[in-house]
């Protein structure tokens, strides 16, 4: 396609994350963001450990972001008609089921970090020899965990009568968020496309990593009919066209799960390159090329991207951390130790070099490399000198330690330690946190100035698709970046990491179903109880612990 307007051809990117929906417009010639609009998405928490979202709200906010961004272009005297294609990137594993005849969701979207499927996980593990969670990794690359879509879909079929009836009556569609959005944006009940891409499909536990199609064995294992599943496509091709709105007729030609999109946006397109994205959770992906590397150290094997129908699939090892930025939000909203998460760098620096407080934010269990649903959050090492600054610093360190856990596992699986770590996501604007990351991992941390790596990856996939061809992935210029070098000794680094590992052990094995013992108020041991911390903010402490926090953490 020829050049258009003063910025040339433009590519839009829908970025639907866990906490917000956005639409960004990039100039294909320069990768510059010309405009964007963002809307926050409401989290619905009906019970402890349950996290849902309204599928219609997700759709309507995406549509609003499209509309506002187009109007922004007009105000900038840029022709929206210069947008030649749109890419999609989305929160992964989040599960939606709906009636394709009415377009109505059959239940709220169950968000990826929801842990209601713990019993379903145990039931599925009981079906296999040794009751091991690793049984299906050879086919899917994933352990049996609350994390993945197949378990959420199985729970819906078992516990929601409307879903079971719809499946039996063959009027149920399943999809991750990309599928729901593409179906609606391309027409919905009037011919909408029921599709997903290989990266999102690889996070369901239902796709075969080698065939890149739904696997009959996996579907039978979970009791899921293949008729309700979307068609699996590559990450870069023209799928269909927007059916309505100001951009009607513009093709959707790229689709990647958010972490895979960040890998592409960071231009980690060669084997051995890796990136870490810091958001609600934290996700480190290591490009393994065309090789499917099955981890023996708690990592996931996933599809990194397939940029074209006839292009080879590229794979990755992934380490997933459930709680990163969410820990800072928890400190703000639940303990009120912060008024704004942007304050964390300033406040944490005031703590100085303490080294004795360790915070394991296992609000809903631990993901890679531990995969322990029975883990719960702990703060250890509290003394009378402990202040809120120490807790906040420990929360930042927790993100860095969890990243080191994953790097250690990747080194063991691949045998070649990373020499640098590319980073992106909301927390990377915190230079103090990135310096901590370099110090605690012992390798340089490289932060490109392009903050929108996830959306950029979706735009690159869309703009380079066959039939669009306005983005040349082979001639992308490196972007300027900040590099953080380690500043502490190996001995100090390892000593602090040893304390982290001790705290991890203390976070394991909580009996979540135990009934609290009655106390007579005179037994101090009985009065100090540590209960689970969960994403939706149900946090309880005893009167003794509350006294300690109120006395020593308030400024």
Using only C-alpha atoms, the radius of gyration works out to: 23 Å
Q: Total helix count?
A: 17
Could you describe the largest sheet, including whether it forms a barrel? 7 strands, mixed
Q: Identify the strand order in the major beta sheet.
A: 15-16-14-13-19-20-21
Helix content range of the residues, please? 25-40%
> What is the end-to-end distance?
60 Å
> Hey, roughly how much beta strand do the residues contain?
15-25%
Low-confidence stretches: 514-555
SS class: alpha/beta
Question: Total strand count, please?
Answer: 21
Query: Could you tell me the mean pLDDT?
Result: 86
Shape, principal axes of CA atoms: globular
Notes on the structure:
The protein is of the alpha/beta class and 555 residues long. The protein is 32% helix and 19% strand. The chain has 17 helices and 21 strands. It has helices at 55-75, 118-125, 137-140, 149-159, 161-168, 177-185, 198-201, 216-222, 258-265, 325-333, 344-349, 388-414, 431-441, 453-463, 490-507, 524-527, 543-552, and strands at residues 10-16, 20-27, 32-40, 52-53, 83-90, 96-98, 109-110, 173-175, 195-197, 231-233, 236-241, 251-257, 274-278, 282-289, 300-305, 314-321, 358-360, 378-380, 421-424, 445-448, 481-484. A 7-stranded mixed β-sheet has the order 15-16-14-13-19-20-21. Strands 3-2-1-5-12-11 form a 6-stranded mixed β-sheet, sandwiched between helices. It has a two-stranded antiparallel ribbon with strand order 4-7. Strand 2 and strand 3 (32-40) form a beta hairpin. The radius of gyration is 23 Å and the shape is globular. The N and C termini lie far apart (60 Å).
């Amino acid at each position: 396609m020829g050049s258009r307007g003063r910025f040339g051809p433009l590519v839009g990117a829908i970025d639907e994350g866990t906490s917000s929906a956005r639409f960004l417009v990039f100039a294909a010639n320069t990768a510059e963001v010309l405009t964007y609009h963002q809307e926050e998405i409401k989290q619905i928490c009906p019970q402890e450990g349950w996290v849902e979202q309204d599928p219609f709200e997700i759709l309507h906010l995406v549509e609003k972001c499209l509309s506002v961004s187009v109007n922004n272009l007009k105000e900038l005297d840029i022709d929206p008609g210069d947008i030649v294609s749109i890419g999609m990137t989305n929160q992964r594993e989040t599960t939606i089921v709906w009636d394709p005849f009415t377009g109505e969701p059959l239940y709220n979207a169950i968000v990826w970090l929801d842990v209601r499927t713990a019993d379903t996980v145990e039931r599925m593990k009981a079906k296999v020899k040794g009751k091991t969670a690793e049984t299906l990794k050879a086919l899917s690359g994933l352990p049996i965990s609350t994390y993945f879509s197949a378990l959420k879909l199985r729970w819906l079929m078992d516990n929601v009568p409307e879903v079971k009836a719809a499946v039996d009556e063959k009027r149920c569609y399943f999809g991750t968020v990309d599928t729901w959005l593409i179906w609606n944006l391309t027409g919905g009940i009037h011919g909408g496309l029921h599709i997903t891409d290989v990266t999102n499909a690889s996070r369901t536990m239902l796709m075969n990593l080698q065939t890149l199609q739904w696997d009959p064995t996996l579907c039978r294992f979970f009791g899921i009919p293949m008729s309700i599943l979307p068609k699996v496509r590559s990450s870069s091709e023209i799928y269909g066209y927007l059916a309505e709105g100001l951009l009607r007729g513009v093709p959707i030609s790229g689709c990647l799960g958010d972490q895979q999109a960040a890998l592409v946006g960071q231009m980690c397109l060669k084997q051995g390159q890796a990136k870490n994205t810091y958001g609600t959770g934290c996700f480190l992906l290591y490009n393994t090329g065309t090789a499917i590397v099955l981890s023996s150290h708690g990592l996931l094997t996933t599809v990194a991207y397939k940029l074209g129908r006839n292009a080879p699939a590229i794979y990755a090892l992934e380490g997933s951390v459930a709680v990163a930025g969410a820990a800072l939000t928890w400190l703000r909203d639940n303990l009120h130790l912060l008024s704004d998460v942007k304050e964390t760098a300033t406040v944490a620096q005031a703590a100085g070099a303490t080294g004795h407080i360790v915070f394991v934010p296992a609000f809903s269990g631990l993901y890679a490399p531990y995969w322990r649903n029975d883990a719960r959050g702990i703060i250890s090492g509290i003394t009378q000198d402990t202040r809120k600054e120490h807790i906040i610093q420990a929360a930042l360190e927790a993100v860095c330690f969890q990243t080191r856990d994953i790097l250690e596992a990747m080194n063991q699986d691949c045998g070649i330690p990373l020499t640098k770590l590319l980073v992106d996501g909301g927390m990377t604007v915190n230079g103090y946190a990135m310096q901590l990351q370099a110090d605690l991992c012992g390798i340089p941390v490289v932060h490109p100035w392009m903050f929108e790596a996830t959306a950029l990856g979706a735009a690159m996939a869309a703009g380079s698709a066959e039939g669009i061809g306005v983005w040349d992935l082979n001639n992308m210029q490196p972007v300027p970046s900040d590099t953080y070098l380690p500043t502490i000794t190996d001995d100090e680094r390892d000593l602090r990491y040893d304390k982290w590992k001790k705290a991890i052990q203390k976070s394991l094995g909580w009996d979540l179903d135990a009934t609290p013992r009655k106390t007579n108020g005179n037994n101090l041991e009985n009065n100090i109880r540590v209960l689970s911390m969960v994403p939706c903010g149900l946090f309880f402490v005893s009167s003794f612990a509350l006294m300690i926090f109120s006395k020593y953490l308030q400024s």
